[in-house]
Specification:
Layout lengths: L3 E7 L8 H13 L8 E7 L13 E4 L12 H19 L5 E5 L1 H9 L4 E17 L1 H5 L10 E12 L3 H7 L2 E5 L12 E5 L4 E4 L7 H9 L1 H10 L2 H11 L2 H24 L3 H4 L2
Parallel strand pairs: 1-2, 1-3, 3-4, 4-9
Antiparallel strand pairs: 5-6, 5-7, 7-8, 8-9
Helix pairs in contact: 7-8
Length: 280
Amino acid sequence: MKKLRLALMDMNNGVPNQGMKGLRDIVHRFKQPDGKFPGLIVDEFDVRKKHQVPGIDYDIYISSGGPGDPRRNTKPWEKQWYELIDQVWINNQTSKKKKHVFFICHSFQMACRHFGLCKVTRRKSTSFGIYPIHKTAKGKQDWLLEKLGDPYYGIDSRDWQLVEPKKARFKQLGADILSLEKIRTHVEYERAIMAIRFSPELVGTQFHPEADPEGMKIHFRKKTNREKVIKNFSVRKYHKMMEFLDSPEAISRTHATIIPGFLNHAIASLSTIPVNEYAA
């Protein structure tokens, strides 16, 4: 069986979170003996805390969310991360052996800024909770979202947003906006971008498709986490979020569809390359 290598990039800078647990659980299911692809080799990189950035020798990359300003580019790890993304892009323009990347939240914001697709701005207030996400016309045609309703639901946790898409740049790259945030008729703010397909192999979301409903329920039922949400937001916000976590139509389908769908598609695409050509 052909061996494929996946680089899981932790962008959380040492901050405890549920995102990496969700990603580890998903990729672990794929590499189990009875999983979709037991030949999958997974290596994890602590990008921001330990300045560990994978090389170009991986087949699949998943770059997580994380805290902080996505507009900074002064740290050594930032330069290395951007260089890796550029190497992947160049490889995919010139090689039959495409590399597949999924960007989440902070990584998604960094990628959008790096490719010059839109403006990154601070939100008027933090977005935190489970919200409806609406497909664009392109999103309704994209295989990644085809098994989801419209709207579908995702966990949102961010102080930053992507707005003012540069249409000429999207056209130049062949990129498409797949989803926008919830419709808000009571405010005049532009709806932020929630998902983009950068290319056939590169895609990302502003929200957290890796979020596991059961894991999130356990996490937010803990006293310290419950009190933090109530203090920073409200009791109503906390109870509404917990109700959504019990609702199968909320994030369960998103969790079961997007990252697994990305991996299925990437593995299927890479598996069609002849072994002798792949190893060359």
